[in-house]
Amino acid sequence: MKVILSTLNAKYIHTSLAIRCLKAYSEHDFDIELAEYTIKDPVMNIVSDLFQRRPAVVGFSCYIWNIEETIKVIDILKKVMPEVTIVLGGPEVSYDTGYWMERLVNVDFIVMGEGEETLHHLLKTIEGDQKYHFVYGIAYRKGSETVINPPRPKAELKDLPSPHRFQEDIPHLANRVVYFETSRGCPFNCQFCLSSIEVGVRYYDIERTKADILYLIDQGAKLIKFVDRTFNIKRDYALDMFAFLIENHQGCVFQFEITADIMRPEVLDYLAEHAPPGIFRFEIGVQSTNDPTNELVKRRQNFSKLTRTVTKIKESGKIDQHLDLIAGLPLEDYDTFRKTFNDVFALGPEELQLGFLKMLRGTGLRIDAAKYNYTYMDHAPYEMLSSDVMPFTDIVRLKRLEDVLEKYWNAHRMDHTLNYLMTHSFPSPFDFFQAFGDYWEGQGWQKIGHQLEDLFTRLNAFLLERGTPQMDVIQGLMKLDYFLGHKYKPRKIWWDFTQNKDEWTSLVKKAVERAQDFTDDFAQLGIGERELQKHAMIEVLPFDLEEVVAKRGLAEAEVLDAAGGSGNAASAAFSRDHSSQATLLVVLYQQHTPDGKPRYFTAKLEG
């Protein structure tokens, strides 16, 4: 019997862990193929591919972000292959299963909860005596009736084979995100999360886990994302795994979900001392800093300890941090969410993700939705639309904020500019993103696309429209950010370039002639006039870089570090003996020092 296990991923770079676990458990008894698509793929392309494979059974792994697209595939597939057996599984259909069996008439079976043992038993029964009432953990049809069997006990993880040893995966490992679990379950009881339903945490054998990770690294994996709900729940386990990954990473990057307020100081000290920069990324769910909200949703969180952890990690400079917020939780109105946003933004995360509460099937908040007067989408992703303290008008405004937050802060296109604006021009980061988001939508820009330079011209237009003071400083920082965002001299700039060719050439020659005043590295690299013309953008900027540094309250070392430069070349940009009428910014892209690391040079010349 030929079985195809399929899922619609968010992107081609993502691998599905769930269907690999199912295949690993059952491939010795059945002819099982994996078929991965994306939610962007045309439905007919997916159906055509499945049709040509001629399976007897097709299983789909279902989540809130792919269920509606999966339903479209199922309905067409059943029309062109009425004989095929359709099986669904995954978190989206494991709850309210009766609803799904009633709504999806083309689905024959639903596997609820963990699927390895249940699917294997179901496939045996389909091929055998078809006595489905003995298969615990499934829902099935008996004539016009839907039968939901009792749940199956949790599997012993030591009995489950590895899902990471398929030969067909090897050619793709370097270009895909590998999802990996070392445990199942969550120790917490957050009422908005499906993980709260499963009690307790179970671990795979640590030696098998390490062997699988080594195998993936040896076969070329570049990014492994651990899906454990709280990777650091056990201190000794976390320390052991961090040490193992540090010793064996070979350039591979590892991403974890951690709970920051329970991270032990000795673990933080170990990471600060031993972790190589860039190989670890932490995702930390803060969600809210409003204590009444956290208490109501049964989310234990000590924000002071969380702050200690995030701050120490950031100060180490070793690990990027992605912090999550959820708008729309109970008792969280617009004003308290403003405080939540500013509280978390002040921690300086490399990425701040603003999500909106989703009323997931099976969660306590969905069951109690009427208590808080929630309205929400009927179909996935079940996003909340309003509550007793958060009207839809506030949700719409926060959506605008989220849009520019993603485009500007999380994309890191204008870090110098944004930090200056949020420190000097707006009451708080929240107020900046909200005001800009409102303006963005007012201009109709959410309906059209954008190029990189559009992001700069649109921010510039917004700041000019509101009469923002010190625009000369702000525009200078915007130009600096634009240069630093390119590896090479940009082909296009977003502002009117007023320098004529003769002036530009003269300044390039001046930079070459006075190279010894700025850095010995120019000579070491053999950079002459032609190289400067090829790699440099020189322009008279309308502000003094020292003045900007002083106004931002930054130390010279901080600015040099932010600009990616160090040593004589960068220091010359801030030397006190060049009180020129104009400041020239010279940025050399893709030049390397003898140690192979990129370096950006800035030099201030007299006008």
From TrEMBL:
InterPro entries membership? BchE-like, Cobalamin-bd, Cobalamin-bd_sf, DUF4080, Elp3/MiaA/NifB-like_rSAM, Methyltransferase_Class_B, rSAM, rSAM_horseshoe
**Molecular-function GO terms, alphabetical:** 4 iron, 4 sulfur cluster binding; catalytic activity; cobalamin binding; metal ion binding
The cofactor(s) it depends on are:
[4Fe-4S] cluster
| Superkingdom in the source lineage | Bacteria
- Entries under SUPFAM superfamilies matching the protein: Cobalamin (vitamin B12)-binding domain (SSF52242), Radical SAM enzymes (SSF102114)
Give the Gene3D superfamilies listed for this entry. Cobalamin-binding domain, tm_1862 like domain
Example of a GO cellular component annotation carried by this entry: cytosol
Which keywords does this Swiss-Prot/TrEMBL entry list? Answer: Iron, Iron-sulfur, Metal-binding, S-adenosyl-L-methionine
What name is this protein filed under?
A: Radical SAM domain protein
